[in-house]
Specification:
Layout: H1 2-23, H2 28-32, H3 38-43, E1 54-58, H4 60-68, E2 78-82, H5 88-93, H6 95-98, E3 106-110, H7 113-117, H8 125-141, E4 145-149, H9 165-183, E5 186-188, H10 190-194, H11 214-232
Parallel strand pairs: 1-2, 1-3, 3-4, 4-5
Helix pairs in contact: 1-8, 8-9
Amino acid sequence: MKIKLVTYSLIIFLFIIRTSIAQNHENVNTWANFEQFKSANEKLSELKNGEERVVFLGNSITIGWEETNPIFFENKNYINRGISGQTTPQMLVRFYADVIDIGATTVVILAGTNDIAGNTGPMSIDMILNNLKSMADIALANNLKVILCSVLPAYDYPWSPNKNPNIKIPKLNSKIKKYAEKADVYYLDYFKALDNGNNGIDKEFSYDGVHLTLEGYKVLEPLVENALKKVKNRL
């Protein structure tokens, strides 16, 4: 009953988002960018019994992972669904299209930094958290395994300065971790692995203080693979 109530509430929430966007004369398909992966999604084969599909959902950091180190995604059941610049409300709107409807069995969610940067307008930490919780709730209601990632360190944003991500990101991560523990989903702490001690990322791992270099992604890869092994073994 609880899962049905959560699912029903989320459907209403998504309808409200779509209606709000329409009222502002903006096309929801363009705003959420459903077209980005529409063709690729249609070409995916249906899973056979016992097969798994891991979807990496996120922004430029996620899609940049495959662009920077495509070998990590090759010959695996990994599907990258990152869209540059996106925020959590945009990902929430396209969550069914790019995660549920393509047969994902596990979703790795890495999102929130663009919200803090204000890419789609001002967002409080709790608003970001609620979007992440909504995505996780949808996934759980559809029997997916969920890996919620911490937001990566960032001392400042080159394209949106003075937003204090060095202060806000740790606060958001603390709330993500608390929710993950309560919801019994896996919390993957990328922040701790990349933090230079000043809530930022060193140049070795990031070329602009936000987006990762190849060496930066190599730090994340064993962490996420270990997380995937752990959630696979969960009942």
